[in-house]
Amino acid sequence: MLEEMNSMMFTNKQLRQLIVPLIIEQLLSVTVGLADSVMVASVGEAAVSGVSLVDTIMVLIINIFAALATGGAVVAGHYIGQQRKEYACKATDQLMLFVTVLSIIVTVGVYAGQNLILHGIFGQIEEDVMKNARIYLLIVTASVPFIALYNGGAAIFRSVGNSKISMESSLLMNAVNITGNAILIYGCKMGVEGAAIPTLVSRMFAALIMIVLLRRENQPVHMSRKIQMHFDKHMIHKILHIGVPNGLENSMFQLGKILVLSLVATFGTASIAANAVSNTIAMFQTLPGMAMGFAILTVAAQCAGAGDYKQVRYYTKKLLVIEYIAMVAINVVVYLMLPVIIQVYHLQPETAAMTRQILTYHACCACTIWPMSFSLPNTLRAANDVKITMWISIFSMWIFRILFSYILGEYMSWGVFGIWVAMTIDWLFRAICFTIRYIRGKWQYQNI
Predict the structure, then answer these.
(1) Mean pLDDT over residues 359-383, rounded?
(2) Distance CA 142, CA 203 (A)
(3) Where is the protein situated, by its record's location annotation (predicted)?
(4) At 297, is the secondary structure helix, strand, or coil?
(5) Confidence tier at 1 by pLDDT (50, 70, 90)
């Protein structure tokens, strides 16, 4: 097969240089959530629940900007594959300008609608949980523009295969966050505020680093020396053509989690806490998959930009095999460490039992279904086949994740575990649809 191809665009060494920093970056990123939840756990389950509820909203917002960043990265990757780096730089300028303006608008909107967000979405929750959620929301919302800029910059660097920069920025962000948590939560006894303030400060540092590095003209892709304050309609259209469907997909996905979370809230504080802890640990269980998803997007975008779909298929298969091996390895480790993890969170016996059941089931599904459900569609997105991934994901989310959550969780009285089962049914449907789309090959004939 290799002999039939033109010269390969990525060597094994280049793939390692891309993948290893991505895995480390994802590990560090997940550590932020783990550090917050573990340290806040010392304040009580109401604090853990409040932080978890707000984080669900924040992930929805962050996913919007991550999707736009993906759009910018794919456009830049196509230009790089075509050897048109000046246009890749222009795409960078437009991406960073657009996410800056939009993130400020979103931040103002969240502050203006905080009561609607807290009461309208989460409904009647215990007073202590609501108090902690409000405090955390008010502080962390200020970090939205900074995390948007960080995501945009990180995506651009990944598009050229340089994932080391985003890894190093993530390392600094985590160091600031964890140090701040230790000082403010344990030293100053500030509770939820002690978790929120370091999150804000760490994201500010990470965004600043990204902007400084992107403005260096010795980078393969960089921002213009003169700050661009006008929108290029053609370039923005190309970015949004990929970013908007991806953003709608991610937003609907997260909205589904929020709607389901309102159901979890009716099960009581023990279920909310078990769901919160499980969500944090579950991110470790899918960590290699998240990293490999970025790698597939980067590699496939450049190969698609060059018009070499044989290499797109070759690298997709190769990276998915690596991902499956890594997913099995990480989930075996997490399963063996479950007793220690549960002990660290100081959970009540009922909460601990629910958490153990959820994470064991999630590990099995992560090793078998997750890669085809979440990483494979990145090949389709990289080839500009974005609308089909959006419609499949939205349909699956509403029918399987939400509807089955109520059927299994409430009607059949499975509780919070039923909600996690419904989630994996959603995964399975997505995986089947994306695999069929990939095999049929229609994604190779999209306009780039």
Answers:
(1) 95
(2) 10
(3) Cell membrane
(4) helix
(5) very low
Euclidean distance between CA atoms 180 and 196, whole angstroms: 9
How does pLDDT run across 354-364, given as a tens digit for each residue? 999 999 999 99
Report the C-alpha gap between 294 and 70 in whole angstroms: 9
Distance CA 430, CA 100 (A): 32
Closest CA to 277 of 354, 333, 335, 349: 354
Distance CA 54, CA 122 (A): 10
Q: What is the overall mean pLDDT for the chain? A: 88
Q: For residues 94 and 82, give the distance between their C-alpha atoms in angstroms, rounded to a whole number.
A: 19
Separation of alpha carbons 76 and 325, rounded Å? 30
Q: Which amino acid is at 145?
A: P
- The residue type found at 147 is I
Q: What is the mean pLDDT of residues 239-262?
A: 83
> Does residue 127 contact residue 41 with C-beta atoms inside 8 Å?
no
pTM: 0.83
Dihedral (Cα; 211, 213, 218, 219), 10-degree rounding: -90
> What digits encode the pLDDT tens for the residues 174-188?
889 889 988 998 888
Identify which of 374, 342, 391, 279 has the alpha carbon closest to the alpha carbon of residue 52: 279
Query: What confidence tier does 289 reach under pLDDT thresholds 50, 70, 90?
Result: very high
| Contacts for 155 with CB less than 8 Å, ≥ 6 apart | 66, 69, 70, 72, 73, 95
Q: For the chain, give the number of residues.
A: 448
- For the record, the structure tokens of 25 come out as 């970056």
Q: Could you identify the residue written with the tokens 């994901």?
A: 393
What are the φ and ψ backbone dihedral angles of 151, each rounded to 5 degrees?
-60, -40
Q: Is 8 helix (H, G, I), strand (E, B) or coil?
A: coil
How large a percentage of the chain has pLDDT more than 90? Answer: 46
